[in-house]
Amino acid sequence: MSVRVGLIQTRTPATHSAAMAHVAPLIRQAAGEGASFIATPEGTNILQKDKAALLPQLALLEDDPVARGLQALAAELGVTILIGSALVKRTDGKAANRAALITPQGEIAATYDKLHMFDVDLPTGETARESETYEPGGQAVAARAGDLKLGLTICYDVRFPALYRALALAGAEVIVTPAAFTRPTGEAHWETLLRARAIETGSFVLAPAQGGFHEDGRGTWGRTLAIGPWGEVLGKLDHDEPGVLIADLDLAAVAKARAAIPALPNARSFAAPISIA
């Protein structure tokens, strides 16, 4: 069975209204090209590095204007939309980096809060402190979207293979990794990490990305990718401009790859190594 998917590459602005105006035409383009499942990047609804400017704009997911707009768009087009992540307010007043799976009826079927927070000082002088703004999730999430058995991850999660393995063992055959990767780490590691996660789990890995230089001053890598379960690149946007990547997924390839390299069932538990002094 083959499923056509659309991966959206954006350069999300710093307000909800501008973000919706930016992403909606790209989603319409993907649907017009036959995609029944469309995934957007991390931070689809707003990107703003200034915490003081960002937090007052955040709303609960059900009240977020971009999420509500994409729910209406999914129902209008009759497609499944995965908001790769929306930056939203939690009911406890904290913020979350949250993926949302929207059905063709416009309903939110599943959500996932990013587990791993990117806290780093880069050699370039660029810094990130996600944990100062967002509360990490505590639950891995797998969900069904039509014929697709999905595993949900967000950006920095790609560096943690145990999460991908857990999703594959839960039945996921297509793991989605929406991102806003920095340019230095993207150039060095983006494609390598995605292909490794696909090979390790025998899964499709779909990675819609933010790209280019944003109005809040950040730079993101772009290079949206679709990877097959043998680690092969099925499609790539080899640039950082907004755009649409269409890929056809032959779902039978998952069972074939996992039968050829049965790493999931062959794995064994083991005692921890003695610590090196």
Automatic annotation (TrEMBL):
Pfam families: CN_hydrolase. Keywords: Hydrolase. PROSITE patterns: CN_HYDROLASE (PS50263), UPF0012 (PS01227). Residues 3-251 form the CN hydrolase domain. GO terms for molecular function: hydrolase activity, acting on carbon-nitrogen (but not peptide) bonds, in linear amides. Belongs to the carbon-nitrogen hydrolase superfamily. NIT1/NIT2 family. This is Putative amidohydrolase.
